[in-house]
Amino acid sequence: MTRAFSWLLSLGALAALALLLGVFAWQSGPVWQHEGAGYVTGGKWFFRQHEFGALPMICGSVVVALVALIMAAPLGLGAAVFIAEYLPRRSRLAVKMLVELLAGVPSVVYGLLGILLLRDWVYETFERFDPLSGDTLLTAGILLAVMVLPTVVTLADDALRAVPATQRRAARALGLTRAEAIWSVCLPQARRGIGAALLLSLGRALGETIAVFLVVGRQDNNLPVQLLGAGQTLTSKLGGSETNIAYGDPLHWGAMMGLGLLLLLLTGAVTLLGSLKGRRDA
Amino acid sequence: MSELILKASALTVRTADRVLLYDASFRAESGRVFGIIGPSGGGKSTLLRCINRLNDLVPGLRVSGDIRLRGECIRTNDVNALRARIGMLFQQPVIFPTSIGENVLFGAKRLRSLTRSEASAVTESALREAALWDEIKDRLRQPATVLSVGQQQRLCLARALAVQPEVLLMDEPTSALDPRSTAAIEELILRLKTSHTILIVTHNIAQARRITDTLACVSIRDGVGQIVEQGEREQLLTSPQTPELCEYLHASDIHTGFTDE
Q1: Residue A176 to residue B80, Cβ atoms within 8 A
Q2: How confident is the model at residue A205 (pLDDT cuts 50, 70, 90)?
Q3: Whole-angstrom Cα distance, residue B169 to residue A169?
Q4: Do residues B38 and B60 lie in contact, with contact meaning Cβ atoms separated by under 8 Å?
Q5: How many domains does chain A have?
Q6: Contact predicate A157/A203, CB 8 Å
Q7: Which of A89, A172, A180 sits opposite B57 (nearest CB)?
Q8: Which range of residues forms the domain containing residue A147?
Q9: Least enclosed by CB within 10 Å: which of A116, A126, A152, B49?
């Protein structure tokens, strides 16, 4: 009975997901008919001329998220090691609570802080590369790094704490130093959980909209060949006013829904991979 | 001729609000197995973990008193070097989730860099000392988790031996094992005691009778764990002087009466 019920609910969840993808696929139909595969590989987006190429935005999303991950991973892992392995239990719980609080700060707040603090800093720091403004892909990447950092820290900390204390004790009893025990016992055993933490953070970075929107520059038709240029991501495009304009025109609307579909597939794949990785760990 | 290796005096372990072990003094000599018996929760493991300073890893645990290893105070030296001189076996074998070969060299390879041939020589001799070589010599690359629990415990012993310690601490090393694996470990203890000083915590009086030379009974007296009686094994087991030991031996007799034979 319980079993049948849980199967039913699982099927329901699956159906909802399929429905979601289905709606986006159906709504984006016109643009696929109009552009074909060129929709994903094309670099130009001029909606008045009915030309829709999403490549700059796909690349923009991926680049920005990767920049975020590259910066957040070492920092977050270092912090997680410190919290899990060095802090006494009581301070660990306090720090963890603070970190999780940071994860819950609304993203528009991060976006405002990005405008307030990060934009000028990026502009001044990299002035000799002559950026047009402080609104760049790099700015968005750094901001995203700050935003996903709490997720990396707290999930990696969980992964490290899941390594049994007996393993640490046995390693120390063999004469390994604390650092050696962390390197050769704790980190290898938490590998899967840490991988999952990074993938889930990547998923979060890919899907983040408003904070990126505020600092990425929203420049269409720029392939992200350099980080210090303004760019556009899937999310910042969708968050803009063009989405409202598009609604009347089936083809234009289809193009926007197509971006949504791509975003869903991208974040879905990364998150799924992350959860699978985490699951096998347990 | 046995030589004094380990001398502990006035060993006291306390937490913020409780004394776990009070005023324990004992001596362990080379070539002899020092057994620690007593009821659960009496402080046997705590006592053992003072010797390689494993208690230092537990936050809030304060250890006072003096332990000397070959005359040197263990407090003043590098703790990791100390632990390399003192191997330890736990109640449950703790194997690292890597290959069998990696497990053997886990501690040894950090002490000195080993060439490939040295590494295999250390691996072989450690596994031979732990009487495991013949069973697994063709399987060194396999994950250590494929071994039975008894084999895993001997692998842990090999891992400790590969570091070439002088002292071996064993915290109920056979309580998780079946009788055959237990016999294998006991045989190893008798063999290793000629080259190592061995301290073993055991719950099993029959085992204490088979393998130990000196015994200490750790029990709760006046609310705190302490060594209530110690001396030669036969003397303690045949004519116990303290009510705690009498009671413990009696309880064990009743217990083993039901389980053995």
Answers
A1: yes
A2: very high
A3: 14
A4: no
A5: 1
A6: no
A7: A172
A8: 26-281
A9: A116
**pLDDT, tens only, B154-197:** 999 999 999 889 999 999 998 888 888 899 889 999 998 888 89
Domain hosting B139: range is 4-259
Q: Is residue A16 part of a domain?
A: no
Contacts of B156 in chain A (CB under 8 A): 170
Find the range with the poorest average confidence among A33-37, A105-109, A200-204.
Answer: A33-37
- Quote ipTM for the complex: 0.87
Nearest to A166 among B90, B106, B110 (CB): B90
Distance CA B137, CA B139 (A): 6
Helices (H), ranges, A162-209: 165-173, 178-181, 187-189, 191-207
Residue A155's alpha-carbon distances to A105, A162, A269, A275, in angstroms, are 17, 11, 19, 12
Average pLDDT over residues A26-38: 88
Domain count for chain B, please give it.
Answer: 1
Closest Cβ opposite residue A173 in set B52, B59, B98: B52
Query: Measured between CB atoms, which of A172, A175, A177 is closest to B163?
Result: A175
Distance in Å, alpha carbon of B100 to nearest chain A alpha carbon: 15
Please, which pLDDT band fits residue B261 given cuts at 50, 70 and 90?
very low
Give the distance from residue B212's alpha carbon to the nearest chain A alpha carbon, in angstroms.
Answer: 23
Nearest CA in chain B to A166: B94
- Which residue is associated with the tokens 């001997």? B154
CATH number, domain at A260? 1.10.3720.10
Is the model's pLDDT at A277 over the cut of 90? no
CA distance, residue A89 to nearest chain B CA (Å):
9
Could you tell me if A189 lies within 8 Å of chain B, comparing CB atoms? Answer: yes
State pLDDT tens for residues B118-160: 888 888 888 988 888 888 888 888 888 888 888 999 999 999 9
Domain assignment of residue A259, yes or no: yes
What the block records as the tokens of B3 is: 């030589």
Chain B CB contacts of A89 below 8 Å: 59
Does residue A8 fall inside a structural domain? no
Q: Would you put residue B172 in left (φ > 0), alpha (ψ -120 to 50) or beta?
A: left
What does the pLDDT read at residue A231? 86
- Region A142-149 average pLDDT: 94
Which amino acid, A205?
A
User: By CA distance, what is B102's nearest residue in A?
Assistant: A184
The answer to whether the Cβ–Cβ distance between B54 and A185 falls below 8 Å is no
CATH of residue B150's domain is: 3.40.50.300
Q: Could B83 and A173 be called an inter-chain contact, meaning their C-beta atoms sit closer than 8 Å?
A: yes
